[in-house]
Structures are given as structure tokens and as C-alpha cells.
Amino acid sequence: MPQRSSNQLGVTTLEDISALILQSHDLTETLRNIVTLVAKRMGTEVCSIYLIEEDGETLRLRASKGLSRRAVGKVALKIGEGLTGLAAEQRRVVAIQEPQSHPRYRYFKETGEERFHSFLGIPLFDRKTPIGVIAIQTKATRQFSSEEISALSTIAFQVSSIVVNARLLDSIRLKEEETSRFARELEQTRKSFLNDSRPAGEVREKALRGRVAYPGVVSGLAHVMDEKLGFTDILDEAGVDVGKERERLEAALEKTRIQTIFLEKRVAERLSQDDAAIFHTHLMILEDRGVLEKIHREIDSGHSAPYALKKIFGDYIDAFKRMEDPYLRERAADMEDIGRRLLANLAGQESHVLHLKGPGILVAREILPSDMAALDHEQIRGIVTEAGEQNSHAVIMAKSLGIPALVAVRGALKEVVPDENLILDANSGYLYVAPTQRVIEEYHRLEEDCSREQHKLEEFREQQGRTSDGIRVVLRANIGLISDIDVALRNGANGVGLYRTEFPYMTRASFPDRDEQYHLYRRVVEGFGGQPVTIRTLDIGGDKALPYFSPPREENPFMGWRSVRVSLDNRDIFRTQIEAILMAGQHGPVKMLFPMISSLEEIRACKAVIAEARANLRREGVGFAEEIPLGVMIEVPAAVMLAPQLALEVDFFALGTNDLIQYMLAADRNNPLVNKYYDPLHPAVLGALRQVTRVAKKLEKGLCLCGEMGSDPITFLALVGMGIREFSMPSPFIPRTKALLKTISAREARRASKEILAMADSQQIRAYLQRELKKSG
């Protein structure tokens, strides 16, 4: 097999295969796309997929890259027949040179495969049941290496799940096609008798796609949120009494302001003050002189109050939606939220929000902050919206509540009727409407498996993280919301390794003052009862913007004015946050972390601001922690190279691997054009991590890894082997990581790390680590 770049196999191939089902229209197209991709990545002339038919005995060629097109769908053989049948029969890898000489070889005129001199076949399984075979062939005689066989085995595992899911979706589509003609005829007959245009008895099963906003799998009845008093419902009125319309508007404004204060209080009690902060913004809009003057001018021109609201709020909504900045674009929802509540109060109607009579899945065009505040969260098992914003306030609230959510689900309101059975798979991005018994049973099995796994993990929550040979590994939580505290504690986190402080800034109409920040940080520190909390200073810019602080327009904001650079250029804002962190340090062990440090000058400038903050607090007689550990994020290549010098300035390092990998490999993982180059096991990345780890150990500095590499078992094994003994990760990963540690020997991990650091190919590295994990069980 010729040498190829590290992105051609391993994790990028699996990611690409997973994405294929979203690009395909049916099972046939999915399989065709898979074989084309695998042949290219494996460097072979042929890749074919055979699937076992319903009789459980016949293997039929369903897709091929390299064999004759005429053979697809025609060539079939029994299990045990030919080399492909041998792989299915014996449920093992079959790797053969000169396959024509093998006694099991079977010749098919249609395929033209007599030209090929090497064969590798690997069975596909659904759980333990064979469902097919994936095979590759080459014109040249080739001895497939153990690394290649391991790589294709990993791909086969992923292909199996794709095939199972694609078959399920395909069966749903076929059923829809079979019943659509009958449904249309029945609908015409019943329309004259029924108000509901959906025919009784119609086979309804559908699978709708969406984007995952928060993962999880839930089932339940549909709670469909109706959109009453939308702006499109408002018509202008002739001959209005201007005075009365102004009075109506003032009464509605006053009632809406009172409601907004109530909503803020309710969300603060249920979630946190940060989550409720958006209603501060709503109140400011309701009292904004410019907005009110525009509405009054419309009324004075002879228009009704509802029409004036529609006109002015509609203009604001359109303006926000046209903005390029994603955060500002999402603020259109806030204007719509306020406008809708004003309209309801003008019309003298109660809120449109559902009164949920039982647990279920909420389906809506868009869920606004006031909806999330008014609804009974205990009755919401999942959320589905047609609107596509993944960072709206409502979605952020859903995340803080741990509610699985899908956004951008086209046609959800059209396809779902109230109280209909739904399955929300917010892991793979599907909403199943009126699922058949087959789908229900499959997901019931999945839920039971998950439940059993969670039950097994319960024993690890309160245990310390230790390897099988007794080495302690500390597992801390990444948090961003007050509601994350309970989640972290429930999952057995040893404090906080990364507290992202951006969210309190994002939900306010202006920069929070020192006392606001102090009380927030104090609550977090006290919430962890003496366990350390690492607070990262404000990290905005790039993909994170504030509505009241617009950065300059840049060609490449990720490489521009962001993070600590913004803080140092806005020293007053920076100093205010540092003062609040120092004050919170009185209430428990706090560490202060500076993001995106790339030079000694930057960390020294940060320390100068700390000195100013301490002087201010002393002058005011305000109590604070005199000594607090300081750290820097190692997330740009410059920081890696300067690690020995930086270590002399700080007490600890935090490895931000997500950004470090992107910057080292010049690959934005969110950019579909280049995300295949984003590779955590790239030898250069591993070398950089090893370099920082050695510096920290030699100079006795703390080291915590905060990126997603800590949540992946394969990369976790390598990191433990390098000597990293502290990780910070999303809380739900902590129990399973403690369980994983029980199977890992630190001594064996060190040996594995030494081996991979000598390798120059990430495909080889991944295959090796996979084998080591399998050995550990």
C-alpha cells in the first residue's frame, strides 16, 4: 500500500462516512458513496459491499467501485460461497493473494474480477448478526498489513451502523411511497367529514432530519406549540382613534414590563441569574425611547397600535436577520419575543404558551426565551424547532437543563400533530414521527442499553480516578453556567478545570460590573465546596461576539483581535474582571487562567493588571485573596515553543488542544472544506503535547488538559502515557473516563506513548492505540 497523508484513513474517514448518509437520498446512494470513498482512502482499485437479504442466506452485491456496473444488483451468492461468502460464513477477516488459486474462489462473468490479484474481505455486523461483507481488491499482488486490516475493520464497524440506519430510513421511505396513493384517495373521501385533513389509519411514519443542539435520545408524545398572534396576522385598521390607540399601547407596555420582570425572576429561580439576564435586555427594549417614538409616530399617522408594532418590530427583526454576526442575527428572536407578548397584551389574550399536561417533546417553529421561562421544564423531555439557530438563548437554556434538542428540522410543524408518538434521536440528528413498532423496539433497546451503562457507571461517580496499577488521575469539569455546578457534582468532578466566563457577558446588555461578577464567581467557588475552580478570563472574538461590543471587521477573526488581546486593549474591563476573581478567591481555592497567550510580554502585561487590581482593592478596603495561582492556556504554537520561559512566569499550564490542533495544522475543524486535516493524532500535535508535558514536569508546574482529546479513549490513552495526570472535560464524560482508567495500566500507557511518538503516520498511530485499548479490555 503506498504512503498516504495522515488524513486519508482513521478518524477522518469515519467522519466522512458518517456524513455520507446526510448527503444521500436512499440506501443505494449511501452505499455507492461509501465504496467510492473507501476505495480512494485504501488506495485500491475495488471496494464492494455485499448485503445479506431477508432470507438470511443470500449475499447480493449492492454497490461497487471498480467492478462492472452491470454486476451490481445481479451478482448473488450463498453464505459460504466464494471468498465473500467465506468471510460471512466464518465471521472473520479473509485476506488472500492470487484469489483465483483459492479453492473457495468463485468466478462471476459479470464482475470482471479475474483482473485482480489481492482480496481482503471483512464481515459487517448488526450487533452479533452478520449483515454483509465489505471487500477491497487490487490489480497488483499485495500483502495487506495488520495496520491496513485494522483500519478497514474500524471502517467496517462504522459502515455497519450506517447500513443499519440507512436501511431503516429506506424502509420508512418505501412505506411512505406504498401508502401515499391510498392516503391521498382516503384524504379526499374523508375531508368532507373530518376537520382534520390527516386521514385516520394513515401510515404516518417519517424520519425528519435536523441539526443537533444538545445530544440525547428520548421518546414521548408531541407537544406542538401553536403560533398565535404572529406578526403576519395583523391587518391595518381604518379610522382609528389615535388617543385610544396610544392608551392601548401604554397599557400593553406596562403589562408586558411586569410580565418580563416575572419571567426574569422565574428563570433566575429555576436556572440562574445568568440565564435570566436576557430579560434585562427585554426590559431595556420595552423602555427604549427610540423604539417607542417610532411606534408612536406610526400611531400618530393614523395606524392602529397592533399595526404600528408589526411595522416597527418587523423592521428591527429584518435588520437583525440580515446581520453577518451570528450572535446579533440571533437577537431577532428577542425582538420577536417582545413583539409577540406585546401583541397578546394589546389583544387582551393570555400567552399562547402551552400548559403541558404530561411529559413530552416540544415541537415549535421557534422557542423564544419567554417560552422557556413560562413552560414547565419537568414536562419537557426534548425540543424540536424549525428555526436553525444553535446558539439562541432558548437553546442555551435547554443545554443548561440537559434537554436533548434538534434545530433546523424542516417541516416539523406540518408533519407532527399534537399527542403523536415521537422518538427524538439527538445523537444522530433524527426525529421519528409516528414510528413503527420496529423503530420503537430498536430505540427501546438502545434506551435500555444506555440505562444499563449508566447504572454500571454509577459506582465510579464518587471514586477517585485511578489506573489499574494505582496511579491517580484527576478529572475536573468544564463549565460555563451556574446550572453546570449540579451536573458536575452529580458526575463526580474534582472541581473545575475550566470555567468559561463568556456567557454572563453574552446575556447582558452591557458589561457586568465587579459586584455582579464577584457574586457569580463566589457562587461557583462555594458550589464546589473546597475543590479548586480555575476561572479563565474573558475569551471573546473569533466566533464569540458581544451584542454591545462589536469587534472591528477582520478578514480572519480567528487569527486576529481576540481573547487576551481584546482584554489587554480594554484594560478597565480586564481589571474589573480580575478584581472580581480575586475577591471570589476568599471563598475557596481559585486559579486564574489567561487564554491565547503567545508571548512573554502578554503574560507580564496580565500580571501588571493583577497588580493594579490588588492596589485598587486595598485602597477601597475590599477583601480579596492575596495569593492566587496563575496559569496560561497553551493553545497556539508560539506558547509551545515558549513553554520553558512561560513556566518561569506562571504556576500552571492548561492545554487547550482544540485550538492548538487547529493552529498547528492550519485546519478549522468547523470548516467542511478542511476539517479532514484536523487530526489530534498528527505526529506534530503529539510532539508538541509531549514537549509541554516535559517542561511542566521538569519545572514542577501544574498541567491540565482541557480539550476534547481528553474525552476520546484512544487519545486519552496516549495522554496518560505522556504523563498527564489532570484533565478537564464535559461532566457526563467523567464517570466513563474513571471506568476506562480502571482498565489502563500507567506502565503500559507509557510504553504505548513511547511507541507512537516514534511513528510518523497518524493512521499507524491510531491503529496501534486501538489495538492497545482492545488488549486492556
From TrEMBL:
It catalyses: L-histidyl-[protein] + phosphoenolpyruvate = N(pros)-phospho-L-histidyl-[protein] + pyruvate. InterPro entries: GAF, GAF-like_dom_sf, PEP-util_enz_mobile_dom, PEP-utilizing_PTS_enzyme, PEP_util_C, Phosphohistidine_dom_sf, PTS_EI-like, PTS_EIN. SMART domains: GAF (SM00065). Residues 26-173 form the GAF domain. Keywords: Cytoplasm, Kinase, Magnesium, Metal-binding, Phosphotransferase system, Sugar transport, Transferase, Transport. Pfam families: GAF_2, PEP-utilisers_N, PEP-utilizers, PEP-utilizers_C. Belongs to the PEP-utilizing enzyme family. This is phosphoenolpyruvate--protein phosphotransferase.
